[in-house]
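To: structure desk
From: M.T.
Subject: fold request, one chain
Message: Could you run this one when you get a chance? Sequence is below, nothing fancy, just the single chain.
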Amino acid sequence: LREQVLTFLRREGAKITPRRLAIVEAAFSSAEHFSADELFERVRAKDQRVSRATVYRTLPLLVKSGLLRELHLDGERTLYDPNYGDHPDHSHIVCSDCGKIIEFDNSPIARLVEMISESKGMRVTHKEVQVEARCEKLARDGKCDTCTHEPAQQA
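Reply: Done. Structure tokens follow.
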């Protein structure tokens, strides 16, 4: 994965500096989704010389490489998913109560989208499935191991 990122950065003409390498290592060191600020904190824990600006300039390059995916949650938060390089055919269920993210294999959905697109004379260039859901345990029991607040009111 690291070599794929480096190859992409070279092809884009981006400088490969020790700080940028530290950002790449931190971004892909865990399967956990992260915000730009969380990545910055992760990198700074290892290298105090990395600036927030360098993190913010590097993230779009990593997204453009196709190895890191942006997730836009509840219209306010942006998280990054480092798992697309290893398994690009996955999607997300996001708990609207606590923000927990659950990944699932979307191969059957992807095949269905391809079939429908082809039947309409179209070719898929991008597909992204993100499902918002409510925590049933929180609604039922009033508490959940993951959720940290009261259940949202049902509409």
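Reply (cont.): The longest strand covers residues 90-95. Let me know if you need anything else for the meeting.
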